[in-house]
Specification:
Number of helices: 10
Shape: globular
Number of domains: 2
Strand content: 15-25%
Largest sheet: 5 strands, mixed
Helix content: 25-40%
Length: about 450
């Protein structure tokens, strides 16, 4: 008989101080003025037969590779869990602290003192989850949540991923201990006019789950392949400050509780996972875009900025095209500079980590940024395991990664991709490779196959 799972969970608060810079909206003006709900780092540790994994959810917009690498190495030092077995993922709330600079917040001031406390909080949650692990049961399944997310780049709102992945850890007597919800959607119900810290709709999902399952039950939220998925508003408009009136806390509550209800309704049908715990990881080489010269990109940015100045006296709706061109020019110049640095050191590709964690008949695939949902759906379709879930914004943040043919309709997400329209092939191939490797591990003998 195979050894049972040993599972532990813990959390630490990571809410930034009032007056902090908030990240996620180019059009946002002002710093944080309040806290609607505290932000947390939450960790779930799962062990079997000496193999241990850590799943960490941080309620921030994103975490860069350097930050994640250092953090994973420190957790490895403190727990002996291999860094390759540690997943540090951001929920992608746009109403949380600035955690690093990227295309969406170039030059935004970072609070280094806060970043130290953020790393400490994540590390403490991880170590505590490792310390309190004990024999517990693990069940998993999918909860279908329809009429929630839409594809913000298509006329009919598809494709989306309506399946919310669920991992439920239970005590030996069946009492809920911890629950992970994994769902693909931008948590951007709240827009740039929101100056309060909040986890957005996932906060309400977790709140209702704790109300129904027990206040001591640890609740974790992991985003999925949400690159082109939102609740219905267009990113091009949102990015320049056009905020639909339905983007408020009432909508966030309604949607968050809708997701929680779907999870709760599906819980009796979730299947207990037995046996295998294995991990495999690799690197996918994503081809980088080629841009005009830096001087040309700078000139384009300055020209677009002048258009915004010239349009300043027009009604806001009429300023949108100029503002979009300015935003796009700034993003493209930022990536041109990054890619020029990469080319100077030779590679024309961006290596990104992709991992698969197998828990019985369930696989978790990590994705390093904002991946278009069709890319993930293609991975799931070819997966050798019955249930395949995706943890987005994991261990790195590379920006967007579009699906096949997406570049034919240029928009915010395509412009905000540093890689070419063929990058999805490399990511899919690497994901399929690691899935095949964990699928080959027998039910009674599991481990790290990286």
């Amino acid at each position: 008989m195979s050894e049972a799972y040993r599972i532990g969970a813990a959390h630490r608060e990571i809410t930034p101080p009032l007056g902090s810079q908030l990240a996620g909206f180019d059009a946002r003006k002002g710093v944080s003025t309040g806290v609607h709900d505290d932000l947390f780092a939450r960790a779930l540790c799962i062990e079997r037969n000496g193999v241990t994994v850590l799943l960490i959810s941080a309620e921030v917009i994103s975490l860069g590779r350097t930050f994640c690498t250092r953090l994973r190495k420190e957790i490895e030092r403190l727990t002996a869990i291999p860094a390759a077995h540690i997943v540090v993922a951001a929920t992608h709330t746009h109403c949380g602290p600035a955690t690093h600079n990227h295309f969406y917040n170039q030059g935004q001031m970072l609070d280094e003192v806060y970043l130290v406390s953020l790393a400490a909080g994540i590390c403490e949650a991880a170590v505590e989850a490792f310390r309190v692990r004990a024999p517990r049961r693990l069940r998993s399944g999918f909860a279908r949540c329809e009429q929630f997310a839409v594809n913000r780049r298509s006329s009919d709102g598809s494709p989306t991923d309506p399946l919310a992945g669920v991992l439920l850890a239970e005590e030996q007597d069946g009492k809920p201990y911890a629950i992970c919800v994994n769902f693909a959607c931008h948590p951007t119900v709240l827009g740039p006019n929101t100056l309060e810290c909040t986890g957005d709709f996932p906060f309400f999902t977790q709140q209702l789950l704790r109300e129904r399952l027990g206040p001591a039950v640890e609740t974790l939220y992991f985003n999925g392949a949400e690159g082109d998925i939102s609740i219905g508003h267009k990113s091009d408009l949102s990015a320049v400050g056009i905020v639909a009136p339905y983007r408020n806390f009432d909508t966030a509550r309604n949607l968050g509780e809708k997701l929680a209800h779907a999870v709760l309704e599906n819980m009796p049908r979730m299947v207990e996972e037995v046996g295998v715990l294995s991990v495999a990881s690799t690197y996918a080489d994503l081809p980088l875009k080629r841009y005009p010269s830096i001087s040309e990109m700078r000139a384009a940015r300055l020209s677009a900025a002048q258009e915004v100045v010239d349009a300043a006296l027009l009604p806001l709706e009429e300023q949108v095209p100029a503002r979009q061109r300015s935003l796009f020019a700034r993003i493209e110049e930022y990536y041109a500079l990054l890619n020029a640095d990469a080319s100077a050191n030779e590679p024309s590709v961006l290596p990104v980590e992709v991992a698969a964690i197998r828990l019985g008949d369930t696989a978790l695939v990590t994705l390093p940024g904002e991946i278009f949902v069709a890319v993930a759906l293609g991975i799931r379709e070819a997966s050798p395991l019955p249930k395949t879930m995706f943890i987005g914004l994991a261990n790195d943040y590379i920006g967007y990664l579009p699906s096949e043919g997406a570049e034919s309709a240029v928009g915010y997400e395509v412009v905000a991709s540093r890689v070419t329209g063929e990058a999805w092939r490399a990511l899919q191939q690497s994901a399929r490779q690691v899935l095949q490797r964990v699928a080959c591990v027998s039910r009674v003998s599991a481990g790290n196959v990286a």
